Amino acid sequence: MTPLQLFLQQLANGLTIGAIYALIALGYTMVYGVIQLINFAHGEVFMVGAYLALSVLLLLGISQPLTGPVLIGLLLLCAAAAMAGCGLLGWGMERLAYRPLRQAQRLTALITAIGMSFFLQNAVMLLYGATDRRFPALIPALRWDVAGVTITWLQLAIWAGSAVLMVGVQALVMRTTLGRAMRATAQDPQACRLLGIPVDRVIAVTFVIGSALAAVGGMLFGLYYNTVNFHDGYLTGLKAFTAAVLGGIGNIPGAMLGGLVLGVLEGLGAGYLSAQWKNVFAFVVLVGLLLFKPTGLLGERVADRA
Amino acid sequence: MSPWWVAAAAALLVPIVNPNAYHLDVLTGAGLYALLALGLNVVVGFTGLLHLGYAAFFAIGAYAYALLNLHAGCPFWAGVIPAAAVAGAAGVVLGIPAMRVRGDYLAIVTLGFGEIVRIAFTNLERWTGGPNGLLGIAHPTLWIPARGLYDFGVASQPYYYLVVVMVMLTAMACLRMSRSRVGRAWAAIREDELAAACSGIDTFQLKLLAQGCGAAIAGLAGAIFAAKQGTITPDSFDFILSVMVLAMVVLGGLGSVPGAIVGALALGTLPELLRGLAQYRMLLFGAVMILMMRLRPQGLLGTGQIRREPLTDRPPHDARPA
Questions:
Q1: Is residue A228 part of a domain?
Q2: Residue A133's beta-bridge partner residues?
Q3: Chunked in runs of 10, what are the mean pLDDT values of chain B (322 residues)?
Q4: Tell me, what's the ipTM?
Q5: Is residue A239 a part of any domain in this protein?
Q6: Domain count for chain A
C-alpha cells in the first residue's frame, strides 16, 4: 500500500464513523439551539436506537447477510422502528424531565440530564444484559477496490443513509413552517409565544427529531462494529457532542461538518499516531477548540454564557 | 453545643457502638466522598465554576502518593502533603486555560481534561502501570508510645478515624474560608462576575485559587484512598465519579459546607442501602437524581442564595425573557 492509498483508506474509514457522529451531533445541536441545554442523555438515546434495531433483527430471527429488496426493506424497517422508539423516548424525556425545569437553574437541568443518562444505561443493561451483544452483519461483505482503496458496501450504505437524513433535516429546518418555528424559538422563545407559536410543542418536536436521527446513528453504528454494549452511548455521545461544538453548537450544517471532520481526524490519528490514544484525540480537539475558537468552525454563538 | 460538635462526637462514637467492619468501610467510603464533595463545593458552590472533571485531581493525588511511596519509599504522612500539593498545582495549571470559557463550556472543557488525565494514566504504562495500575502501595503507620509502630493494614477502624478527622479539619477550613475575605470575593464572583471585577476583585486570581484549593482537597482524598486500597487503577477515577461528587454537592445544597457532607453521606451510602435491590440500584439512583432536581433543586440544606439562571436566558445581546 502506498502512502497515498493508506491516507485515502484512513480518510474513507474516518468519513464513515464521522457520518455516524454527524447524525448524533445533529440532535445535540438542535436541542442546544432551542433551549441551550446540553442534553447529556442524548448519547444514551443513540445507544437505545442501536438496541431497538437489534431487537427487530432478533424478533425476526435474522442473523445472516441479505441481498436485494429484502435487505433494503429490512434496513428501512429497523430504521423506522428505532426512530419511532427513540422519538418516543425523546418526547417522554422532554415532557417528564426537562419541561418542568424550563425556568430552573442551568445546573439543575444538566444534573437531570446526567441522571437520565444513568437511568437509561441501567435500564438497557437490565433488559439486555451487561455483556457485548452481537449485532448481525446484514449487509454482505462485498467490497470495491478503487485505486487500491477498499470501500465496502456497508460504508456506502452508511454514507447514503446519513446523507439522505442530513439533507432531509436541512430541508425541514430551512423550508418548512415547523423549521421556521424552530429557528424562531432558538432566537427568542418569548417573542414566539407572543406571536402564537406553540413553543412547547416546537421544543418537543425538536427532541423527537434529534432522537430519531440518533436512533439511525445507533443502527448504523451496530452494523459497522457488529457489537453493541449498554455503555457505548457515553463515549460516542461525547464525541458527537465534540463534533457539534466543533461545527459551532446550534448550527445544523456545522454539526454535519463537525462530525465528518472529527471522524477523519480520529481515523488519521489512529492510523498515523497511535490507536491507543485514539479516544484522547476527540477530547484534545474539544478542549483546544473551546479554548481557542469556542464558536466552532461555522458557529456565531459566543461561548461566554454563564 | 453547636451541631458540629454533636456530629463530630457522634461520628467518633460510631465504631464503638457498631464495630461491624462492613458498615465502617461503607462509612469510610462515604467519608472520602465527603472530602471530595467539600473540595468540589469550593469550586462549584462557593465560586460558581461548574467542573465536570474533578475525579482527575483525585487521581493525581492518588498516583502522586503511590509513586512517591513506591519509588522514594515516602511514608503516608510525608506523602500526603506533596500529593495534595501536586493535585492543587494541577488544578491551577489546568485552570489557567479554562479561564477563557464559562458556564456550560467550562463544564465541557473540564470534562475533557478529566478524560484526558484518565486516559493518560491508562496509557503511560511505564510510570503508571497502565490499566493494571500500581500495586503494593504502603498503608499508613502510626507510632504509638509504648506500643511501637502500628500499621493500619487492612483494618477498617483506623481508616474510619483518619477519614473522619480529615473531613472535620477540611470542613472547618472550608467554613472559615467561606467567611473570610476570600470567601466573600468567591461569593461575589458567583453572584455576578462582572460586578465583582468592577468592585476591584481580581477574578482571575481568585478563580484560580478556588480551583487550586478544590483540587488540593481532592488530592488529599486521593492519597488517603491510595493508602487505604494499597492498589490503584485508572478505572477508579472515571467520569461517573466526577458526576457522583457533583450530584452530592448539588443534593446537599450548592455552597453549603454541611450540605456537602450530608449529600456525600446520603449518596455514598444509598447504593449500599439499595443493595437489597441488587441490579436495580443504579437505575433507582438515576431516578432519584431526576426526582431530586424536580422536587428540591436547591438541595437538602441549600440556602437558596445561588443566583437564578433560568435555562431560557438569552445571551446579553438578545431580549431577556421577563
A1: yes
A2: A228
A3: 82 86 92 96 92 94 95 91 96 89 80 89 87 89 82 87 95 94 94 91 94 97 95 89 88 90 89 74 82 80 54 41 36
A4: 0.81
A5: yes
A6: 1
